[in-house]
Design goal:
Elements lengths: L3 E6 L5 H11 L3 E6 L3 H7 L11 H8 L4 E4 L2 H7 L2 E4 L19 H13 L4 E5 L7 H10 L6 E5 L9 H6 L4 E5 L3 H14 L8 E5 H32 L3 H9 L20 H14 L3 H28 L8 E5 L14 H11 L3 E5 L4 H8 L6 E3 L3 H5 L4 E4 L11 H7 L5 E4 L6 H7 L2 E4 L10
Parallel strand pairs: 1-2, 1-4, 2-3, 4-5, 5-6, 7-8, 9-10, 9-12, 10-11, 12-13, 13-14
Bound molecules: nicotinamide-adenine-dinucleotide (NAD).
The site of nicotinamide-adenine-dinucleotide has 26 residues, from helix 5.
């Protein structure tokens, strides 16, 4: 007999790892994860999980079938569980009012209606998805309509970062739980606090009103993305002035009020969340008439778009203003290291622009080639997908580092240089390579926010 039964609706990058962690840390609870995507559930039940996260395979192998279960019986599981996390996707709307900005809440609302339809007893519904502030009110209204069952809606946004999800879930900086300040709200909140307290120190489990909790998630992502855009804006100035952005970031970051993290200049941020959550914040500000606040946050996105454009322009100018028929190898396609996720990856934009310039694009990545193939399907031009980085780089005119995978730091670049067309170029979009060493080997090297090192007079 299990002490608690918990359901999660949505078996994606958040639902899967989060529930695997609860199952591992709480063997006395039964955790079930459901999804409308049958294929995804089949993969969660197989040896080839639908997502890559360091450490995830091991945990799933340990707990699956013991107290973690993956199923497609959404309605049956809604009836069988009284604590329900909802972790469905909330992408940016692509149609109608707010297209390109507002969150598309259709998946969330369909789930809410399904819960209401199937529920036969009181439930605690936990918003795990990232949602616009005040979504819980809409949820309460949908769930409360024509029903005498009580639904208590809590907000428990997820702060994990892909690539380090297991570590983040195991040892979170904080867990945030927002609730109504009513007797049922407080009781539900305490129940959720007790679940996390199985492994998270109580002082790191913080509670707040439900609106603060919903908004905090959007703000956390906006602040993180803002740091990246701030340093990238400075990188563009460094490139004009022979300052080195890494030296500037170090000097600035050592001020303890500023801090050293998230100050790496790069080709720009990607991922499914930063852009979507900031646009959502911008839309919210505009809808409350707060246009200055909206413009401010929109600037973070503009700098990021500009950073990707600048990267391609640097390549074009460095390679004598034509890329036609040149072979360019992208080192990495995932939006960051240690994940196979390519959603909003800058590499998608860069690959598209290079193809428009009629370059031959070669893509290598240790985990993301399957997603890369899907992202670039139907694009005009010559694209090759090659697992082995040496094979991918051979006969290329240029390498462009798109993802900061450790493996790219330790390659035998002498061997790569010998196999490339000359003059050989490297464009380091993540500032992970040793420029001086590569320059001495004969490469012409361009890194973000640093003076180029070339062998041209
Ligand atoms: N990916 C991240 O790093 C991250 C981090 C924090 C928060 N979030 C937020 O968490 C939420 C989920 O993100 P994700 O990356 O896991 O998305 P995802 O696309 O990987 O997973 C969402 C899953 O929900 C399923 N789904 C959609 N509608 C459904 C329904 N009606 N019934 C059952 N299943 C349904 C989809 O099939 C999909 O498998 C989003 O709101 C996102 O903003 C994501």
């Amino acid at each position: 007999m299990f002490a608690k039964k918990i359901l999660c609706i949505g078996a994606g990058y958040v639902g899967g790892p989060t529930m695997a962690m609860i199952a591992m840390r709480c063997p006395h609870y039964k955790i079930t994860v459901v999804d409308i995507n049958d294929e995804k559930i089949a993969r969660w039940n197989s040896n080839e999980l639908p997502i890559y996260e360091p450490g995830l395979d091991e945990i799933v192998r340990e707990v699956r079938g013991r107290n973690l279960f993956f199923s497609t019986d959404i309605e049956g599981e809604i009836r069988a569980n009284d604590i329900i996390f909802v972790s469905v996707n909330t992408p940016t709307k692509t149609y109608g009012a707010g297209a390109g900005m507002a969150a598309d809440l259709q998946y969330w609302e369909k789930t809410a209606r399904q819960i209401r339809r199937c529920a036969q007893s009181n439930k605690v519904i936990i918003e795990k998805s990232t949602l616009p502030v005040r979504t819980a009110l809409a949820m309460e209204r949908i769930l409360g309509a024509e029903n005498n069952i009580h639904f208590e809606v809590l907000s428990n946004p997820e702060f994990l970062a892909e690539g380090s999800a297991i570590e983040d879930l195991q040892n979170p900086d904080r867990v945030l739980i927002g609730s109504r300040d009513t007797p049922t709200g407080v009781a539900a909140r305490n129940e959720l606090v007790d679940i996390f307290a199985n492994w998270v120190p109580r002082e790191r489990i913080i509670t707040s009103n439900i609106w603060s909790s919903e908004l905090s998630k959007l703000v956390a992502n906006a602040f993180l993305a803002q740091r990246i855009s701030s340093i990238n804006a400075i990188a563009s100035l460094c490139e004009k002035t022979e300052a080195d952005v890494a030296e500037v970031a170090r000097a600035v970051g050592l001020d303890s009020r500023i801090g050293t993290k998230f100050l790496n200049a790069s080709v720009g941020f990607g991922g499914s969340c930063f852009k979507k959550d900031i646009m959502n914040l911008v839309y919210l500000c505009r809808s409350y008439g707060l246009n200055e606040a909206a413009d401010y946050w929109e600037g973070v996105i503009k700098i990021n778009e500009c950073q990707k454009e600048r990267f391609v322009l640097t390549m074009l100018r460095a390679m004598f203003n034509t890329l036609a028929d040149k072979r360019i190898c992208l080192f990495g396609f995932a939006f960051k290291a240690n994940t196979g996720d390519t959603r909003e990856s800058p590499a998608i934009y860069i690959a598209r622009k290079l193809l428009e310039e009629q370059a031959v694009v070669v893509i290598t990545d240790p985990k993301a080639l399957e997603n890369a193939r899907r992202d670039l399907a139907g694009m005009k031009g010559e694209i090759l997908f090659i697992d082995d980085p040496y094979e991918a780089a051979a006969a290329s005119d240029a390498l462009a580092v798109m993802t900061e995978w450790d493996l790219y730091k330790d390659l035998d670049f002498e061997r790569i240089f010998d196999s490339m067309t000359k003059p050989a170029f490297i464009f380091d979009g993540r500032n992970i390579l040793d420029r001086k060493k590569l320059f001495d080997m004969g490469f012409n090297i361009y890194a973000v926010g640093k003076p180029p090192m070339t062998h041209f007079a």
